[in-house]
Each structure stands twice: as C-alpha cells, then as structure tokens.
Write a sequence for this structure.
C-alpha cells in the first residue's frame, strides 16, 4: 500500500477494528502531515521519496503466542537473530514484529502474575480496561504536529507494544520487543507506550534490523515513556539497520518526582539517521542518564543526540555520547539541554567523545544549552581523537592482525556502553563493531 491517502488510513483503522477516537486521530494526523514541510536541519533526505514508501504491508500470517506456531520462513529469520534463545535465557516477555504487524507476543506467567501488562498495541487500544489508559496517553508526549514524521506515524502506525508495570513491582528480567523490516521499499511505524507506576522498576530492550535492498526503506516509529514517582525505567536499544534505511524514529519520556530514566543506545547501520530521544524532567529530584554510541561508515550520515528539559528543582541529567566514523562516514551529535526558571539547583553534564578511524571521515558536536535559572550547574565537554599507529603496532606485536587490533581499540572506546547491556546484547554490539571494522555490513 504505497503513498498516503485517506483511503489507506481508513483501511488500516478498519483492519484493526479501532474505536472512533483512534480513526479521528489518524485522520487529523493525515491533515497535519500534508500541511507540514520536511525538517530544515540535519542530513538531507533527498533519497527518500515518501510517495514510493509502502506505508502498510498486508500481513500474511496471524499473530501467535507459541513460537512453534510462527510460520517457518519467518521463524528462521528470527532464529538467526537469536530471539527464541534470548527469551529462554532470561526475558520477562518478547514481542517480534515482521514488517507492519506483530507475529509473536508472549509474557512469562510469573511476570504476568505480578500484574505486569504486556500487550500488542492493537489489543491495548481495544481492551475494555487498558483502552481508556491508551486513549489518555497515546500521542500525548509526541503530538502529531511535533514534526512531519510524527504526523506520518500517527496516521499509519501499526504494531508495537503497550507495557504497564504496577506500583512497587520490580521486573527483575528485561522485556524485549524486536522489529524486523523485511519488505523492500516499505516503512515501519510501530508504537511503543510504557507506563512504569510509582516505585516500580523495568528494563525494556528494543532491537531493530532489516536486510539490504536497492531502494529506500523508512523507519518512523514512536516511543512514549511515562516514569512515575520514585520509579525507574531503563530503555536499551541496539539498532542494526541495513544501509538503505532512513531511520527517523521519535522517542520521548516524562519523569515524575524522584523518578529516573536511563537510555542506552547503540546505533549501527542505516543510510541516514535522525534520532534525538527527549526527556522531560517534570518532578523534583527526577534524573536522566544517557549512554550512547553511533558508528558511521561509508555513505552513512548519522545525526543523533538527546534533548533534556529540566522543569523541576534538583533535577539532574548526565550524557555520555560516543561516536565513531570510518571510510568517509559522518557523525553528528546534536543536543538540547534546557533548564527552565523553576529548575532550582538543576545539574547537567555532557561528555561527547569521537574516534576517527581515518582522515576522510567527519564528526561534529552541535550542543545547544539554554539556562533560565541562575542556580543551575551545566557542563559540556567534547573531544576528538584517532586510532594511534603506536597502539595498533603494539597490539600487532602481540599477535593480532591490523583489523583485529583496530577493532579491539574501538571496543575499548565503547566499553562504557556495552557494559550497560545484558551479556547477549553486549556481544551483539561488539559483533556489529567488528563487522563494521572489517567492512562486512
């Protein structure tokens, strides 16, 4: 279903048997999308023809809750990605999306028994109890008029997950959603909505991948995170998109009094990325920590960063951003730290480090800091370095090849990020780094 028309929007809504409020939201978003221009900053989007993107891929199979019932050809794809093994090894719940629809969704009984809700987004929208909550929260942190791709998402969203963690419940093992975009020339527009109630704790992992085609693919998902008083949410992402992907995802969180959000992000692949998670520190003493790594190779322009808005007193944010560029790749760290007048005693510190793997690549740091309270403490450090010949020679003298030596140095540079991930995902990130260094992606 290529192009974006009212007929398509109505058809998607009808297929999902949505309530009228959701159809109305989609149609309003379509109006906004048609009226809004493309972003005027960041990498050029000339190679993305939105009229040629397949905004909804008709599912060939129904969603199931038993891995054995997943069709063989799809199961084989996810088996290679390690989804069933990861679930057995220690995940509280798993959702797997293939193109526009979820094909597998499951949550462990012991987690469900605690009152944790983990539903496909379509089920949550129509659920007698949780549908009211979804209506109250859906596209509220990221309104359709935020930017053109938020409007596109709101009009054609499909798939994704709804998570609710009850008050004072600690989910000891992570929940994961994995998104695979397999159709050439298609877009993926999943919606993730997570509510962590007062005093609760959750680690949510998002994985993304796609095979390589000769036509542009688009990822314009949306993530909305609500962290309540004294709650904690860790949101980890490892993205290994193919290098024909335009990755234009939008993520936003709001954190209440003494709550905490931790972002852990690994961005690999994609032709163009524009990723700027946003955190609103809304309650006194709320915190944000961001740890991210971006790796740009030949033909890639990855524009990433973080936006933090300090609204309340004694709030704090810490940003640790690492970027690597190789074979002419371009990385840009773009950030906004905004401390409002009511944020007495707010603190923010950013540390941005770039590692250049050759002399033809590029890395930029583009911070914006706005301080409206004189009691705030704000710091920003940025540094750029390159892989030294002496270090490479030393490692080669110990038996490593030049490629292995360089990959080891890069893994050391990104170790602060990988140690924040569960073992299986840290290994995946290190494997992606090795592949990038060897030029096998």
């Amino acid at each position: 279903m290529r192009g974006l028309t009212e007929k398509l929007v109505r058809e998607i809504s009808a297929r999902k048997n949505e309530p009228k409020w959701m159809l109305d939201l989609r149609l309003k978003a379509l109006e906004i999308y048609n009226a809004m221009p493309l972003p005027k900053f960041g990498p050029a989007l000339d190679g993305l023809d939105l009229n040629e993107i397949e905004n909804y891929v008709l599912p060939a199979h129904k969603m199931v809750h038993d891995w054995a019932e997943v069709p063989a050809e799809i199961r084989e794809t996810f088996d290679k990605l390690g989804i069933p093994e990861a679930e057995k090894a220690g995940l509280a719940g798993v959702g797997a999306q293939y193109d526009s629809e979820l094909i597998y969704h499951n949550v462990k009984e012991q987690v469900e028994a605690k009152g944790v809700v983990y539903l496909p987004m379509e089920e949550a929208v129509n659920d007698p109890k949780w549908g009211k909550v979804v209506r109250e929260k859906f596209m509220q942190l990221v309104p359709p008029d935020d930017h053109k791709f938020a409007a596109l998402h709101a009009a054609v969203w499909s798939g994704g997950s709804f998570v609710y963690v009850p008050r004072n419940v600690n989910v000891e093992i992570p929940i994961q959603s994995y998104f695979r975009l397999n159709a050439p020339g298609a877009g993926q527009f999943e919606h993730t909505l997570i509510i962590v109630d007062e005093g609760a704790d959750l680690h949510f992992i998002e994985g993304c991948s796609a095979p390589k085609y000769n036509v542009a693919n688009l990822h314009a998902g949306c993530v909305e995170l609500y962290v309540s008083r004294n709650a904690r949410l860790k949101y980890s992402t490892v993205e290994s998109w193919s290098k024909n992907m335009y990755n234009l995802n939008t993520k936003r969180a709001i954190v209440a009094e003494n709550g905490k959000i931790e972002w852990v992000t690994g961005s690999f692949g994609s032709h163009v990325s524009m990723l700027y998670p946003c955190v609103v520190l809304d309650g006194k003493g709320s915190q944000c920590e961001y740890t991210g790594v971006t790796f740009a190779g030949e033909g890639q322009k990855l524009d990433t960063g973080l936006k933090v808005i300090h609204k309340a007193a004694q709030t704090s944010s810490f940003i640790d951003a690492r970027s690597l560029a190789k074979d002419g790749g371009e990385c840009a760290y773009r950030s906004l730290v905004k401390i409002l007048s009511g944020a007495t005693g707010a603190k923010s510190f950013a540390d941005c480090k770039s590692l250049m793997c050759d002399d033809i690549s590029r890395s930029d740091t583009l911070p914006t800091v706005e301080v409206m309270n004189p009691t705030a403490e704000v710091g920003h450090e940025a540094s750029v370095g390159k892989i030294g010949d002496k270090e490479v020679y030393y490692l080669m003298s110990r038996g490593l090849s030049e490629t292995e030596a360089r990959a080891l140095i890069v893994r050391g540079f990104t170790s602060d990020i990988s140690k924040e991930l569960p073992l299986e995902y840290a290994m995946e990130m290190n494997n992606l780094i090795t592949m990038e260094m060897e030029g096998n992606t």
Remarks:
- Confidence is low (pLDDT under 50) at residues 86-92.
- The two ends are 29 Å apart (CA to CA).
